[in-house]
Amino acid sequence: MNKKLLIASLAFFSALLGICASQVEARTALRNICRIKGQEENVLRGLGLVVGLNGTGEAGDPATMRALARAMEVMGSPVPEATLTASGKNELAKIKNVAIVMVTATIPATGARRGDKLDCHLSAITGKSLAGGRLAFAALQGPNTRDRRVYALCEGDIMLDDEKLPTVARIHNGCQMEEDVFTPLEQDGYVTLILDRHHANFQTATEVVESVRRSFSDENEEMVKAVNAANIVVQIPEQYRGEPVTFLADLLDINVYSPEPEARVVINPRSGSIVISGDVTIGEVVVSHKNVVIEITEQAKFEAIGDEQAPNARLQSLVTALDSLKVPAEDVIDIIQGIEANGKLHGQLIMK
Q: Residue 89: CA atoms inside 13 Å, Cβ hemisphere, count?
């Protein structure tokens, strides 16, 4: 037996909710939706050699043998070139407790100084398991492949985060910085605000410009300008010259109207999760799926709407109604995809 669900009154209740929400607009600190240009994380990378494995290394692998031979050479015990040939009598080929790993360490947004210690992460290139091993050494370079400087050295005992993934591990404080890494925040008296990707749009950029102008531009309204939807350039006021950190602290502390992120629906078909953010609405559409028929209209037939444009129904209301009818999650996902394919989903659909 078909179930027919008329979602007409949803628009009316959605309109009420929208009115209530507009009456109490939330505010948020500027630091919650943007960062300062120069405050970016950087990843250092390099290759390392793990020793002490309990037979779970890579025996007979030419790359592992060359890395081990190079390590022995650095430590003053070079291996004759002849022993590295694939003769079958290579002594290094018998070693099973060594593996090559990729090592990475993330420099925080605030930078790092020489001597600072960071966690580093290891991913096995050769070998079956890193359990019980120790990173002998690894030299890490910056993200720019043309920069040959060594920024950090790594070593230490390996810890597995997940016993089911023995080829991935980390070392707490195993990376020691050998060079300073930081990016200047100020350039020629200007700083740049970069809106995060969830708030980067022209409306939010304009709102931020107006808020900064109200707070700091008593004498110069040209001190702040939005370059595009994500970048806003701010001139450091005269009273803050020489104290850029104080200015940035005050700048990021100003309040702006809590900007609405882009309306989007994020679906994970494997787990069946549906996350709806922002005001995702749907247009007029009739959905027939298995034993469920859904008719969605833009206005309640029993309400006198007037000449104003009627609001659309919210997707959240549809999902709630389907859930009340015990419609399985996979069917709800199919319905949302069908609405999106018909151009009736007013928001971005992201399938993970």
A: 3
Tokens of 122: 């290891």
pLDDT, one tens digit for every residue, the chain (352 residues): 444 444 444 443 444 444 444 444 567 888 888 999 988 888 999 999 999 998 898 887 888 888 888 888 888 877 766 555 555 446 777 788 999 999 999 999 888 999 999 999 999 998 899 999 999 989 999 888 888 899 999 999 999 988 889 999 999 999 999 999 887 888 888 999 999 887 888 888 999 999 998 888 666 778 899 999 999 999 998 888 888 889 999 999 998 876 666 678 888 888 888 888 767 888 887 877 777 777 776 554 434 444 445 556 788 888 888 888 888 888 888 888 888 888 888 887 888 7
DSSP per position, 115-155:
T-EEEEEEEESSSS--TT-EEEEEEEE-S-TT---EEEEEE
Instruction: Check: pTM over 0.70? Answer yes or no.
Output: no
